[in-house]
Write a structure and sequence with these properties.
Rossmann fold; single chain; 7 strands; alpha/beta; 7-stranded mixed β-sheet; about 250 residues; globular
Length: about 250
């Protein structure tokens, strides 16, 4: 019997929880600074870190909200986040085990919601966004941060291929246009959308997910065979490191 997308994600990320708590690319970045600024401007009672991973959004939100709920389908990830929160003296962070598509929270129960580098693992983006809209209070500020596809098929195919080779729980890096359409379908009003690139260090990218050697070699083979437009856009380096497109989408429920 084949695994569901959610069970595959749990199997992939559960044993790697500590690596994501400690990951430099997840623990810092311009997107986290932008998120902190939005959170500061909308400080309130309760916030949700949806698909919390290593908890880096929750740690930032803790300074601006009385309670922050870090939600993730992987229980080992939640344990790692709870331990890190205690070590940081953040007593206002709680955890909840759930997939984005089925949240165990009452409607309109959060003053702020953010999700970062999580949605490309969701089995159903529309359903996850609908749930996010349901649990956010009317008018609540919401921030979506994720890797995005550049758009053109030549670049999109390369990106999705290396992503799923590295991590079989990967579903899709959506384009910015797909994101804006899905966010609006869910009932959110878009306030701003920013894009930038971040450098992905290939050795740590592969090590963090414990990608099998055969798969890592396949990624390198695809990079070596890539056309000049692909190599230029992703700025592929000799060791396989590359530039990844990232989106910060600010919206209101």
């Amino acid at each position: 019997m084949s695994a569901s997308p959610e069970s595959l994600a749990r199997a992939q990320f559960g044993p790697r929880a500590a690596a994501y708590v400690e990951s430099a690319v997840h623990a810092q970045g311009a997107d986290l600074e932008a998120l902190s600024a939005v959170a500061s401007a909308h400080a309130g009672r309760r916030a949700l870190d949806l698909g919390c991973g290593g908890g880096h959004v929750a740690y930032r939100l803790a300074a601006h909200f009385a309670e922050v709920v870090a939600c993730d389908p992987a229980p080992e990830m939640l344990t790692a986040v709870a331990e890190a929160a205690r070590a940081r003296g953040l007593a206002n962070i709680a955890t909840a085990e759930a997939a984005a598509e089925r949240l165990p929270f009452e409607a309109a129960s959060f003053d702020f919601l953010a999700t970062r580098f999580s949605a490309h693992h969701w089995s159903d983006l529309d359903r996850g966004l609908a749930e996010a809209h349901r649990v956010a209070k009317p008018g609540a500020a919401v921030v979506f941060i994720d890797a995005v596809s550049p758009g053109p098929p030549l670049l999109d195919t390369h990106l999705q291929a290396i992503e799923v080779l590295r991590d079989p729980s990967h579903v899709r890096d959506y384009t910015a246009a797909e994101w804006t359409a899905a966010v609006e379908r869910a009932g959110f009003s878009i306030a701003a959308l920013h894009r930038h690139q971040i450098r992905i260090d290939f050795p740590s990218w592969i090590e963090r997910m414990r990608t099998p050697e055969l798969n890592a070699a396949a990624v390198r083979a695809l990079q070596a065979a890539a056309s000049e437009p692909v190599r230029t856009h992703f700025a592929i380096e000799p060791d396989g490191s590359f530039q990844l497109d990232v989106m910060i989408l600010e919206a209101a429920a």
